[in-house]
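Hi V.,

You were right to ask for the full record rather than a summary. Here it is.
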Amino acid sequence: MSARGRGGARFLRPKRKVPAAIAALVLLAAGLLIAVQALSALFGHPARIVPYDRVADWARAATWQDNAVMASAGAVAIVGVLLILIGTVPGRPRLVALRSGDPDMIISTPRRMLARVLGTVAAQVDGVRRARARVRGRRVTVHAGTDLRDTAAVRERVRVAVEDELAKLAPVGRYTVKTKVRGAP
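Predicted structure:
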């Protein structure tokens, strides 16, 4: 795979917008709360939204060995690690990057559309009554039905037809094709 192809596929990976928005809103609310508390105390009329005196008394009396302190520190650490993982691990791609003649152009198709196209190609193979395909990760699984009893030849024709169509579409990355053909009883 070329460097441009990998870059195109990486460009199409979904970002973690919803977790980022939630984290941003939580941090915004905490920042506004702190700002209101600090400004109101600065002007001589503390807002007392957070019971500051009780929190300060608890913080003065608590030691690092207290169970509550350890549990709070552990919870904050776990939330921090989860936020880092959510931010660094990209989501499951919903689009398949396809190669084009222009190296600066990115073409993509939804996975469902690719599966629909490949299922249609499989359904047009001689001897196939109906077919559907599913794209998961780098694997295409085709389920086909035939009225014939000997399914080996049909399975091979379906696999070849789907692989030929994949070669024409030229997705970035290699896809394996698995075919399952159900014959007549």
